[in-house]
Design a protein that fits this description.
The chain has 390 residues and is of the alpha/beta class. Helix content is 24%, strand content 22%. The strands form 5 sheets. It has a 6-stranded mixed sheet, sandwiched between helices.
């Protein structure tokens, strides 16, 4: 069919050009396809002149793409579900410890050593460790008693923190945990509310139920002070426990909380996590260390996470004590959600975008001065705010 010159001139009049180099003019590709009608005849004049020579079926392919782009959402066929990255036949086992490319697995109630297939390290999962404590993995045996982790099953929950050297990649602390036990000592080292708040936020982001445990209650001189410090967590609906591996206070209550579920135990080094777990179930043989008298902080006695089966049912994952815990995936806009008492006061601030730092007529600062909000919570908010701002 021969096109009429008048229509060709009209088409040329609508075309735009962009400059390429100093003198050459190139016709710009039309970018917006969504305004077309799917019933309009496909016209090769809408494409670069160099693209007119094309395979025999290329025009049909482009027309099909155009019809998909202009179709309503109800007309577009949903994509087929993705196949698993790795699909390997084998037995399902629980990963109880990981150290580099070596691991320990629990299979049929028996712990066995295993190796991690190198292929797993090549998968881009966003985490620096492809296998973590608490993972359910597919394992195979070579016939000589050597076991290998071939793939990791989907995780129900992930407790992770940003890797300090490879951000934004994260490190999985534990997988598939039902609850998180945040252990902080009353003294030696001193109670650190900010770290507790960080763990509570991480638990909420991971959809893991938290328990706040203040250990070494035998060092408390005033029980009323403990009640005042932990009242804010009870007001927010969190379970709180005062425990002592020395006197046995709260150990039976803690044992009941741990029975039948998978619990990841976290906290600062030296807070007595391992001693407390040994009090819950004697014979766990966890390493216990002293507090450094120079820095009044705990020494790292647990060097890697390990999971232990409880006699009453359930597991506990003892993790290395850390002095910093970054919050992966948290934004400034979401931060007020985890400090509801501060977010409620923010509505009274002079400025709608008040950061509650040095702004005039800040309702949060006024409430802090008047004792209507816990200073430790405001300090935690500001510390995390500064971290996210950077």
């Amino acid at each position: 069919m021969v096109r009429k010159p008048k229509k060709r001139q009209q088409r040329r009049g609508r075309k735009t050009f962009r400059r390429s180099g100093s003198v050459k003019r190139v016709r710009a590709r039309q970018k917006d396809w969504s305004g077309r009608s799917s019933e309009q005849e496909w016209d090769e004049m809408d494409h670069e002149s160099l693209e007119r020579v094309m395979p025999r079926d290329e025009r049909d392919r482009r027309k099909a793409i155009d019809q998909v782009l202009t179709a309503s959402p109800q007309e577009v066929e949903p994509p087929a579900p993705l196949e698993p990255i790795l699909e390997v036949e084998g037995a399902s086992a629980l990963v109880t410890a990981v150290a580099g490319m070596s691991a320990r697995i629990e299979l049929d109630g028996v712990e066995r050593p295993a190796t991690i297939r190198g292929l797993l390290t090549e998968l881009d999962t966003g985490y620096i460790n492809p296998v973590a404590v608490g993972d359910r993995a597919i394992v195979t045996e070579d016939g000589a008693g050597a076991w290998a982790i071939e793939s990791v099953l989907p995780r129900s929950t992930v407790l992770a923190r940003p890797d300090p050297f490879l951000a934004p990649r994260q490190q999985v602390v534990a997988a598939n945990a039902d609850q998180i036990l945040v252990v902080s000592s009353w003294l030696e080292p001193d109670l650190w509310p900010e770290l507790i708040d960080r763990y509570l936020i991480a638990a909420s982001l991971s959809d893991i139920s938290p328990i706040v445990c203040v250990n070494k209650s035998d060092l408390m001189e005033s029980r009323a002070e403990y009640e005042a410090v932990t009242q804010v967590y009870r007001d927010m609906g969190y379970r709180t426990l005062a425990t002592s591996a020395v006197t046995g206070e709260g150990v039976s209550d803690l044992r009941a909380e741990l029975t039948g579920v998978i619990t990841v135990v976290v906290g600062l080094s030296g807070t007595g996590k391992s001693s407390l777990m040994s009090a819950v179930q004697p014979g766990l043989d966890l390493r216990v260390g002293d507090v450094s008298q120079a820095h009044r902080q705990g020494r790292h006695t647990t060097t890697q996470a390990a999971m232990y089966r409880l006699d009453g049912g359930g597991y506990v994952a003892d993790t290395p004590g850390i002095r910093e815990f970054g919050l992966a995936g948290l934004t400034l806009g979401e931060l007020p959600l985890f400090f509801p008492e501060i977010d409620e006061l923010a509505a009274e601030c002079r400025f709608s975008n008040c950061a509650h730092l040095e702004e005039p007529k800040c309702a949060v600062r006024r409430a802090e001065e008047e004792g209507r909000v816990f200073p430790s919570r405001v300090a935690s908010y500001r510390a995390i705010f500064d971290e996210l701002e950077v």
